[in-house]
UniProtKB/TrEMBL annotation:
Its EC number is 4.1.1.37. This is Uroporphyrinogen decarboxylase. Pfam families: URO-D. It comes from Paraburkholderia caballeronis. Pathway: Porphyrin-containing compound metabolism; protoporphyrin-IX biosynthesis; coproporphyrinogen-III from 5-aminolevulinate: step 4/4. It is found in: Cytoplasm. The lineage of its organism: Bacteria, Pseudomonadati, Pseudomonadota, Betaproteobacteria, Burkholderiales. Keywords: Cytoplasm, Decarboxylase, Lyase, Porphyrin biosynthesis. InterPro entries: UROD/MetE-like_sf, Uroporphyrinogen_deCO2ase_HemE, Uroporphyrinogen_deCOase. It is an enzyme of class 4 (lyase).
Length: 363
């Protein structure tokens, strides 16, 4: 059966095509701020029990779409699935976040790293992608919104792999970077090959856009960022399938704290660059010209303000970008677990309402 995408606004915006309004989705839109998510997670027994079960992953992916008129779904998963598939022993410790039982610290650890067999180790992810696509599509082949697949960037994955979990200062991974850059480059090359294979498997399974989260790129110094983060993100982008079933598959990358390097990120070959809330969208658009779309960039803490203030801040973001094609509205980072759902409803409503006004003929 031929499939019809009922709402392709998000995909058209990524390709800088004119749209009637600015599409919106939210990083971590399926998450702990939603009571229905918490109920599903409780049934799953743990975060990994949720993420590794395609039925649960499908359920929580669709929950924000059932509550808000968002313009894209994003696969429910975690950025650490790839190093987990490498055998590093991922666990989520209550109050501490992700932990690896076997961090990569020594020359022997690095030598053992290999690109995982995606089909054997990450089949639960590609099964979830297929299942979510089916759940988004009605009996007549009409799909509600596009599905985004994603991965962590090679550098961001390396941070967790070497540190053994999260970090405030990245002392261990940066020490390796400066003392043994050869080891770090070996890790990053394996990661880049793995991420490319992983995202291509998601595209084959039905992801209609993919995003690379370089969450910790901004922790690097200028020069080190280009060598140890951007270079390997570009390696991933160059290896991606950019078309599936005759349809373009856009690629987004997001470096938190990466505003300094916006021009260089735009030159990697991606279709869109996500920016955090420290970036002026108007100036960013002038810098990248017509090379890429931009995604962002409301400060997530705005969503704790009264709804009138939320709406005003949303309009300020839209005004900053202007009525030009190539903008996807998002937060400048993931949504907080403490965010009131009614605040999200107000945000989505205002982005859709006001962007239509901005783009109206004669506006």
């Amino acid at each position: 059966m031929a499939h019809t995408l009922l709402n392709d606004t998000f995909l058209r915006a990524l390709l800088r095509e004119p749209t009637e309004y600015t599409p919106i989705w939210l990083m971590r839109q399926a998450g702990r701020y939603l009571p229905e998510y918490n109920a599903t997670r409780s049934r799953a027994g743990s975060f990994l029990g949720l993420a590794k079960n395609p039925d649960y992953a499908t359920e929580v992916t669709l929950q924000p779409l059932d509550r808000f008129p968002l313009d894209a779904a994003i696969l429910f998963s975690d950025i650490l699935t790839v190093p987990d598939a490498m055998g590093l022993g991922l666990d989520f410790v209550a109050g501490e976040g992700p932990k690896f039982a076997r961090p990569v610290r020594t020359e022997e650890d690095v030598a053992r790293l290999a690109v995982p067999d995606i089909d054997a180790t990450l089949r639960y992810v590609t099964d979830a992608v297929r299942q979510i696509r089916r759940a988004l599509t009605d009996g007549e082949g009409r799909q509600r919104v596009p599905l985004i697949g994603f991965s962590g960037s090679p550098w961001t994955l390396a941070c967790y792999m070497v540190e053994g979990g999260g970090s405030d200062d990245f002392r261990t991974v940066k020490s390796m970077l400066y003392a043994r850059p050869d080891l770090m480059e070996r890790i990053l090359d394996v990661n880049a090959q793995s991420v490319a294979a992983y995202l291509n498997a998601q595209i084959d399974a039905g992801a209609q856009a993919v995003m690379i989260f370089d969450t910790w790129g901004g922790a690097l110094a200028d020069g080190a960022y280009q060598r140890f983060s951007l270079r390997y993100t570009a390696q991933v982008v160059a290896a991606l399938k950019r078309e599936h079933d005759g349809v373009r598959v856009p690629v987004i990358t997001f470096t938190k704290g990466g505003g300094l390097w916006l021009d260089e990120i735009a030159a990697t070959g991606v279709d869109a660059v996500g920016v955090d809330w420290t970036v002026n969208l108007s100036k960013a658009r002038e810098r990248v010209g017509g090379r890429v779309a931009l995604q962002g960039n409301l400060d997530p803490t705005v969503l704790f303000a009264p709804q009138d203030a939320i709406r005003a801040e949303a309009r300020a973001v839209l005004d900053s970008f202007g009525p030009h094609p190539g903008h996807v509205f998002n937060l400048g980072h993931g949504i907080s677990q403490f965010t009131p759902p009614d605040s999200v409803a107000a945000l989505v409503d205002e982005v859709h309402r006001y962007s239509r006004v901005l783009r109206a003929p004669g506006a």
